[in-house]
User: Fold this.
Amino acid sequence: MSDRVVDFRSDTVTRPSDGMRRAMAESEVGDDVLGDDPTVRALEERMASLLGKEEAVYVPSGTMANLLGVLAQTSPGDEIILDRNCHIINYEAGGSAVVGGVQFYPLDSPDGFLPEDELEQAVRPANIHHPNTTLVTVENTHNRGGGRIYPIERLEAVSKFAAGRGLRLHMAGARLANAVVATGITFERYGALADSITICFSKGLGAPVGSILISDEETVEKARFWRKRLGGGMRQVGVIAAACLYALDNNVERLADDHALASRIGRIVGETPGIELVFPVDTNIVIFNIGGADAAEFVSKLADRGILALAIGPGRVRMVTHLDITDDDIDYFEEAFPGIAAG
Ligand SMILES: *Cc1c(COP(=O)(O)O)cnc(C)c1O
Assistant:
């Protein structure tokens, strides 16, 4: 085992900085279930305004934010259209099905962007045999799609389609800030394309906990009810919401640094014989195939050199850059990786 450890498993591994901890310690708090926490209110109002929406509700996790987005905009037995590789289908423990009683209509898409030409046939015609199609979801940036940014004109097409068919559109935007920084497209412009948006503060933004669901007043009111019902009503949580406000002030623009480092990793793995970069590196995620090798074994060989990555499928590995990764860490990776890949 190496004495140096560089953790590329996820952008969730960052620890709150001294400045963030100070902001947390100094936060004003109240009972948020009673609507009394000024720091939580400030965060909710700021996010609603940033996305050009009426309201927002602060929740413990991105999983809960997406779940509330589904629950507030569907009824049991409804069907929702999503891409097969999305986070909601793959990594949220089936919550929408268990709690919301909805079923999924997954569309195949290697990069995670919905195939526009299949949307029309995915909407069930009104008929007593069919479930009601009520919601479409998009993921931006796309996690299993290698952190790719949903192309704006394709988002516009999906948004127009959903509106035309009377369907709601939810944007799972755990890493929407990465897309904003990489493209220069504003939060507000993205917000205008969806009825509801989820954003996580615990990913690249570097907060220890917290996500938010942003939408119209009626949807957020329903989401608040569901948050309480699921046991997610929290009390003096200004202490953690303060970390999110701090992240908005200090950690958004710097996501560009994470993207530059991920792009270096992409170049290094792309130039390594036997390794195939699966997606262009748009933001802070790098996904590559390792030929016939076993991903768990490959990841364990990387770990022996202190390089932590995730095996995310047979022969497929993911690395993510974040606040605690430096240029020097990538130099170290560049030196070690070709030898490890060569076996
Ligand atoms: C991380 C993530 C979430 C939510 O994750 P939590 O760990 O529950 O906060 C949702 N969607 C995407 C795309 C994610 O990457």
